[in-house]
Amino acid sequence: MRALEIQSLTGPDGVAVVDAPEPTDDGRQVIVDVVCAGVSFPDLLQSKGMYQLRPDPPFRPGFEAAGVVRSAPAGAGVAPGDRVAVWSRGCLADVAAAAPENVFLLPDEFSFEEGAAFVLNYQTAQFCMVHRGGFRAGESILILGASGGVGTSAIQVAKAVGASLVIGLVSSEDKAAVARDAGADEVVIIADDWKDQVIALTGGRGVDMTYDPVGGDRFLDGVRALARFGRLVVVGFAAGEIPSIKVNRLLLRNVSIIGAAWGEAIAMDPPLALQIHSELLEQIATGYIRPPIGQILDFEQAAEAYRLLDTRQAVGKVLVRLRPDPV
Fold first, then answer.
1. CA of 326: how far to CAs of 35, 140, 257, 261, in Å?
2. Over the stretch 197-218, which tens digit does the pLDDT of each residue have?
3. Do the beta carbons of residue 66 and residue 86 sit within 8 Å?
4. Of 3.30.230.10, 3.20.20.30, 3.40.640.10, 3.90.180.10, which CATH number belongs to 2-118+291-321?
């Protein structure tokens, strides 16, 4: 089968499509014929040796995909022929293998493209925003990096939960359009006074939550934009810089900073992923959840998918297609 391989920790330049053996059916894993696979920011970080999982090259990347079940153990909750989304390692390949608790039936209304864009970003949003951050109906939220796959999923989860106001922060007018299409009520384009613009949109109060997958120099103003008793949820560091803060700032208005790592959570509590999937299915019924798809590339162009992320040209979810949709 074809599989992506990271041959050196040099980012997109180290990515290659190779011939690899298919995963074997050991009677414990679900085997899936992959139709589409997602390329996410953790994939890019891993290709540079900057992710918390740091395998030595060569290794096979890819954390999420959608396809059709080829085989499944008894009691797996899925059966051959089922349309599924998958969370596992080595998903950027013609065939993927995953533990049953990391295989999720696709809603009938979802395409394979939407399925490949669903698990990582939406599970992250639901866990980080709701489980860790305690976000609830009637609250306001500021979402940093609101045009990427992580940001657009956070917008939609916030709307499905019942947010009173969803503000997206982006770097350009083109990206503002993506955030608006995803459901943001207001969008602010980065400028020297963006924090003041956010506060003005809340009538001077500030937001109840800042959702931060970016870090870097946006983090501090994300804290400053909080209302009293607000909280900033640390999701990731797409800007490449891990920020720091003088903790006396937390005392000024009784604000909190919350670390949230979905991957660590489901590693320690594997059934949690299926629980979150069940919650997301209820949210899909609200009509707010529909993964925005960005670029879809042929599998042979997978290195270009990495470049789109590396140069911050990606909007929505970047996908690669492995095979046509089954008839």
1. 8, 42, 46, 35
2. 999 999 999 999 999 999 988 9
3. yes
4. 3.90.180.10
Token match 């770097």: residue? 171
Nearest C-alpha neighbor of 88 from the set 102, 68, 104: 102
CATH 3.40.50.720 assigned to 121-263: yes
Q: Which of 105, 60, 59 is nearest to 86 (CA)?
A: 105
Q: Are strands 293-298 and 186-189 parallel, antiparallel or unpaired?
A: unpaired
| The predicted structure's pLDDT at residue 313 | 80
Q: What pLDDT sits at residue 53?
A: 81
* Alpha carbon separation from 77 to 34, 87, 96 (Å, rounded): 18, 15, 17
> Within the chain, which residues score under 70 in pLDDT?
none
Res 10: pLDDT: 94
pLDDT at 149: 84
All residues at 6 or more sequence positions from 70 whose CB lies less than 8 Å from its CB, including other chains = 31, 32, 33, 80, 95
What pLDDT shows up at residue 158?
A: 98
Q: How far apart are CA 265 and CA 120, in angstroms?
A: 13
**What are residue 143's DSSP bridge partners?**
168, 211
d(CA 284, CA 277): 10
Please report the pLDDT score of residue 239 as a whole number: 77
